[in-house]
Write a structure and sequence with these properties.
The chain is mainly alpha-helical. The chain has one domain. It is built from 2 helices and no strands. α1 runs antiparallel to α2.
Amino acid sequence: MSQPQHPYRHGCPICHITKTRLPFCIHRKHQRIIAMMALFRYERDLIEHLAGELGDLTQDFAEPQRHGIAAILAHHLAEADHYLGKLGRLLNKAT
């Protein structure tokens, strides 16, 4: 049996350059990075929404509990921003 052929053996659908020697097309890599960035943006928006909802719900909690919840949400927001920055730099290097 023959080996499976790379789907872009006859050329990249984006740049139309034949890339028979590369294991993958660079544009597929770009698409993966962009998809991951969209996922982190969604996560960031969701965390911000939850922070607003929890702000209303936590008014009955004691101050240390409110502070702990805020710290956890801030940590997750910072983490999402960190990965968005890394993915953005990776995307710039790949182009």
